[in-house]
Amino acid sequence: MRKIPRRGEEAQPQGGHDTKDIPDIQLPQGYDDKLALLQPYVEKNHDLIARPFYLDNEIKLQACAFYFNAVVDDKKLNEHIFKPLMMHSGGWELDKFNNTDRVDLIVWTSISEGQLRKTDNLAEMVHSIFDGMVVLIFESIREAVIIDIHGGQLRAITEPPSEKATHGPREGFIENLDINIGMVRRHLRNPRLVIKKTMVGRRTRTPVAVLYIDDIVDHGLVEQVNDRLNHIDIDGVFNAGMIIQNIEDKPFSPFPQVWTSERPDKTIAELLEGRIAIMVDGTPTAIFLPALFIEFFQAPEDYLDRTYISSFLRYIRFLAYFIAISLPALYIALISFTPELLPVNLVTSLAQARKEVPFPVLIEVLIQEFIIQKVIESGLRLPGPVGQTAGVVAGIILGQAAISAKLATPAVIIIIAVTTISTFALPAGPLVQSTRILRLPMIFITAIFGLFGFSLGWIFMLAHLCSLESLGVPYFAPLAPMRFADLKDSLFRIWLWKMNLRPLSIPSQQKQRQGRTGKEGGEGE
Amino acid sequence: MNSTDTITSKQLIYIIIGAQIGMGVFSLPRLAGMEAHQNAWLAVFLGGLLPFLILFIIERLGRRMPESGFVAMNQLLFGRWLGSVMVFLFVVYIIFFEATVVRMFTEVTSAFLLPRTPLPVIAFIAMLAVVYAINKGARVVARLNEILFWIILPLLVIIMIPLAGADYTNLLPVGEAGLKSIARGALSCSTAYAGIEVLLVFYFLVRQKGEIIKAGILGLGYTMLVYVLVTVICQVVWGNNFIQTLNWPVFTVFKTIRFPVLERPEIFMLAVWMGVGIRPTMNMGFAAAYSLSEVLHVKRDKYFHLVVIAIALPVYILALLPPNLIIAFKWAEYAGYTFLLAGLFYPLLMLVVAVIRGKEAQSA
Amino acid sequence: MPRKVSLTVIILLLLPLCGCWDSRDLDKLNFPLAASYDLHSPGSADPSDPPTPPGRKLMDVTTMTPNLAPKSSAPVDIQTLSGINATDVRQKRALIDPDTYVTGLLKTIIIGEEMASLGINPYMDALLRGTTISGTMYFAVAAGRGEDILKTPIKNDTNIGTYLLALFDGIHQRTFIPVIRLGEFYRSQDTGKNPVAPILERKGDRVIISGVAVFKKDQMVKKLNLEEGQMLVLLRGIAGESYQPFMRNEAGKKHWGSVLVSNSRKVKYYQDQQGHNFLITIKLTGNLDEHSHQGPVTEKHLKEIEKTVEQQVKNQCEKFIKKMQEEIKVDCIDISKYALTKNRRALEKEIDNPEFIQYANIKVMVKVHLDKTGEAR
If exposure means fewest CB atoms within 10 Å of the residue's CB, which of A90, A106, A163, C344 is most exposed? Predict the structure, then answer.
């Protein structure tokens, strides 16, 4: 089973930097010796380019550049590395300096590229090549120079399709970590913004960045996040989702325990509330910890709209969540257990429709539920316009046909349709997915026990929600444990200039967000 | 003390409310009106003063020995063996009391919701939820209490609807039932406030010890308010004579409320019904399980669930023992009297011993 | 490992729970919207016509259910069955009807006149004990047999059940007539209280409210006509709104008109040497709705109208009280409870005796206040 370090437990990094098959030795002085050492890695990779050349100086120092085609920026390579080294690196006497100084001299005078470092370790050098850097080796100089000129084609910055906002910024993250971090930096110009990078994945060696604001975040949480990242022992990471699954608190729970976003503006808002962001290279998604249940009801444009509108929309979403989970269940409970509780006219018309359908209510609901789930799935995979068409056609035709084929009553079609619509009215993708599943146990338990089962299901759900923790922070806060100050931005969305405190539910060093010092926040749990 | 087992003083309010308001409230107006007739609400009010006394006793006791939990306190006061036996007796009391609560819950569920479902099944399902919650520790129990308090609160508003067309002459004349019968009614009403004794266990788990008394008063005050309100509503809606013919007068009041769209507001009641039932069982059950695990030195993380099951199983069996509703009501009555024993005399005894042994016990 | 074991145990324990004991399919249910209780008459529609046990009169239970079968010709299904009591009838219903009855949807219960005069509590216990039965069900007395009311082939509504429901719903806003629900019927049997109920009567293809039944506890003692019923509502203080016609003499000319008023009642009680004294104050507030007087209505007119209505209502009330004290001898205007508020323990025993109300001094005061005259002056 997956292991997560708890607070206080000692961190025991298990993987991450797999250097076993590359000898961890110092590089030799000689050019040919180095080439020999590199040979096993070079000969199997046809896209690895080894470009030998002479430095343009008196002694014609022999050098070689290693890089992967299409990973590095060709233009930069030619303009900023090869050209100066081959043509303009004269005018100084190499012999007058010792080894270290010689390589520094080359770097200082002849490479017009910003990100570089040097190493005398074989493993690091080989990894650098495979990480997509340009590596330069020189005759009679022990150290190799590693230059980061990642390039190649990248996707343009567009609006994230899964997190569309009606208004507000249209920027979304892309697949490149550095550009993503740059986007955050550009909008959060605070010297206290800390960005720490590590590598995750034995083989993929994916760069993962941890972002937080130094004087807001609770450092205990940062430590925990680092612990958990270091504990990830996994072959390859190519998606933020894989990181999430490896660091969340309760993997058995159906609820999403970290919040994700593809939007830089959301990222900044989360950082300012004292959360920690994790960004993974290759995924246009940032992960935020600790997450609260209530957060999944907050949409980015909530903070741009007028207070009343935003608060109203929040209620719509809470209602949508309740409906999405319990409407089919409630329907079954009321229809097949306690029809007394419904108005007379409704019951008689429902019963009339039911007489035509040969299945019990449970089966009827389940059939429709599975049909609609399949419609959703098929719509997801099909390309854009086709998917939409398929959804609409399936929805209308199947619904109508089911009624006329006497497979379902109109009421059930309405119930399932409303439920599905409500599910997708929720602003957060992970919550939508969990809602789609949670509905089923609810349906079954009410099919057995009626309204009693309904309340039982909700009690189990509440108990579970109360027991969840994200990074050791109560997940169901500020509802339970109740933090009245935080209800400002959960049940309501009060005026921004009134939100003087950061959320109490998220531990932070600095409770005061803005404005004059009011009452410092109440006790935590 | 494990960090999963600490609560805040605010949560203590909800825990006290949750432990007290349970199944008892549904038959309380009948119990109160039996002796005190139209002055039932007075009896309920006066009966509510007893838990305040208990609160002060426990608070005194806790202040004397703030460093020791319920089990350690017993073992210090009565010696290792006798103390353990005392704790064990307390656990047995809770098991018995909880059994009556579960039985009442099962009976009401069976009567109003699931007439054909066998009682053992309903009781099992209820216990399942309780065990699930207790297993997660005091913090989760406390949080669940908090959220359930707010979820159940609307019921209090709904039950106030019939106040508009009610007959207030049913409450008059005040005080005519006589001091003696009101006092007798108050005594039997005070058993409906059972649940405060869990403070014996929860006292140690609260982080802000200084605010316990405030939290306790708030919790007890709320319970008292609800009880008096519910009694008054039942009295004005039904009149005392008719109440005496009903098993659960409060439920019957819900049946007479009319709502425009949903035919009957019982649906709100029934939709949160499990929440109403789980609270007292959960709080008392946790107190018992926690005490027992302390006595037996059970590892909190590893085997706590076994202790919980060891509590839940006898509760389940005992709950199913009364052969019919009338005997179940009798049991509930006895459980009420044992509350006086375990809730009033037991802490009092502990306090007396603590005072007598004084410094010796504290320093040990 | 123990976690897995306990999880398995729980799942195994859950398996036998999948019973669905209480699940009922909606299409296998019948929804009686209205029912009537009558004393058994040999000519009733019960096909089996069971023998009468000694010492108890059989009852006929008639239920009206809308017919929900897809292609049935009859819109409603009305059945009459006889038995010792209501639940006995329920078990017999299984023999003639495939569907289960959802008693919780019963909206109106009609008691036959004969049974009402006999006392209905012995036959009504099932309604009190039934946990699903709605406490807000309407309660009415039939002139004659309740069976006949339900069997009226009603034309102006879908069926008699929905018609009765619509008739009773909000009738307080239309006229002064006492409407009572089952819960109120029970609680009005408390010490010092007596229920009243509307009387339904079949007139051709229509069902109308034709009067008010006065109960002494569970036994109907008197049928009142509609006018007396109005006074009963005013005296009893059942909040409502209705028109009150009046006639006024001005300069030898008669003016007719009516006021739309809502009522409220206050009762003062005191005991002295003369016995129990009640002072009932009826307050009517509303507006002038019709007046045959041409020309603007001045304040003087308004005051006069108020006086006229006051006098008229007071006379009628006094007449009614006289009838109540001399003829009915039951406190049907719900004032005895005010005596109880002063001295419950002593009065509890005698309050329901006919003598108490018979010799009580009841005074009525009527206050009318009109504040609007409508669009016309």
Answer: A90
